[in-house]
Write a structure and sequence with these properties.
Layout lengths: L9 E8 L22 H6 L9 E10 L6 H15 L6 E5 L5 H11 L6 E4 L12 H12 L9 E5 L2 E4 L4 E2 L8 E2 L7 E4 L2 E4 L22 E5 L7 H8 L4 E6 L7 H12 L3 E6 L14 H4 L2 E2 L5 H13 L5 H10 L1
Parallel strand pairs: 1-2, 1-3, 3-4, 4-5, 11-12, 12-13, 13-14
Antiparallel strand pairs: 5-6, 6-9, 7-8, 9-10
The structure holds succinic acid.
Length: 335
């Protein structure tokens, strides 16, 4: 679908599914619906005010529940965004997505989009058929941000419930509330309301046009293992036997690791597997050599990246041929 008002910015809306495109048999239902079934044209038709904000170019890239997001779809989406943003007649991109893995896709794009034009992801907690569906306003706000001059060079963003978050910092923090996203420690980048966009801080870490990463090489297998009371080494040993190239530990506290797992990780590192220590705690950072001896072990600390985002960065680093622990630590200190 394309709308016309030649003086407005032209924004590409790429739909991938999610609850924003969800449908329930009963308008009072906000759970037990099917995600990713409503097409992009119908999502746009539900927001007539979009025609006052931007000219829309729409594409249906996928129709999935984002729990089923794959690395293959990441590559398809990322490459399509780069093609669109290289066009003079596209001023920004909005991606509609499920909330469940939104933060992973957003961070992958933050590291692989090769443009300073805005890329904004949005989603919804209530299906499109629900009473008080949150998708239409989130979509309008996402397009408003993508069409706004001040959104350039901010990297990939998430517009949700009137807030604008950086892809690097944002995480889902509620299973049901419409204010489901937060950026722990650092807070939102800014806000959007009634057509007004304000940024309150800038993104300081490297991203998008300044990032060294791309989606050309195949993304290697990287898995996540949690540490907890009574943890066994079975999962780590199975992943290593399956040929995994990297492991991210969702450690306790400051990325501390159960002694049983720490021995399994030392063995994995000895076999050439890259290991990154993150934390299962939802805010704060993991200090290098803080709660585990990274120097002696040959592991890397994830800093403020949660396990899911640490996995994305480790996959991209390994795909770029960066395998040495010191070089991977440098990457985690930079992005
Ligand atoms: C999904 O992630 O696709 C389903 C859940 C949601 O969008 O809130």
């Amino acid at each position: 679908m394309t709308t016309s008002n030649i003086s407005l910015p032209r924004i590409a809306v790429l739909a991938t599914g999610g609850t924003i495109a969800g449908q329930a048999g009963d308008a009072s239902k906000t759970a037990g619906y099917k995600a990713g079934v409503v097409g992009v044209d119908k999502l746009l038709d539900a927001v007539p005010a979009l025609s006052q904000v931007a000219r829309i170019h729409a594409e249906q890239v996928a129709s999935i529940d984002s729990k089923d997001m794959s690395t293959a779809l990441w590559v398809t989406l990322g490459k399509r965004i780069n093609v669109l943003l290289a066009q003079d007649d596209i001023d920004g991109v909005v991606v509609t997505h499920g909330t469940d893995t939104l933060e992973e896709t957003a961070y992958l794009l933050h590291l692989t989009v090769k443009s300073e034009k805005p890329v904004v992801l949005t989603a919804a907690m209530r299906p499109s058929t629900a009473l008080s569906a949150d998708g239409p306003l989130n979509l309008l706000n996402a397009v408003t941000v993508a069409a706004h001059g001040s959104a350039a060079k901010q990297g990939v963003m998430v517009a949700f419930n009137n807030q604008i978050h950086s892809a690097r910092d944002v995480t889902k923090t509620s299973t049901y509330a419409v204010d489901a996203f937060r950026s722990p420690e650092v807070g939102a980048l800014g806000w959007v309301q009634d057509g007004r966009v304000e940024f309150q801080r800038a993104v300081v870490r490297r991203h998008t046009a300044q990032s060294q990463f791309d989606l050309e090489a195949a993304l290697p297998s990287v898995e996540i293992v949690a540490s907890y009371a009574g943890a066994s080494r079975a999962a780590i040993d199975a992943f290593v036997a399956a040929g995994v190239k990297g492991l991210v530990i969702a450690g306790t506290g400051n990325g501390s690791v159960h002694a049983t797992l720490q021995q399994a990780l030392a063995d994995a590192i000895g076999k050439g597997v890259a290991v990154v220590r993150s934390s299962r705690v939802s805010s704060g950072h993991v200090m290098r050599n803080g709660a585990a001896p990274d120097d002696a072990l040959g592991s890397v600390s994830a800093g403020t990246l949660n396990p899911y985002k640490a996995r994305v960065l480790l996959m991209l680093a390994l795909a770029a041929g960066i395998t040495d622990a010191a070089a991977i630590q440098q990457i985690f200190d930079t992005y």
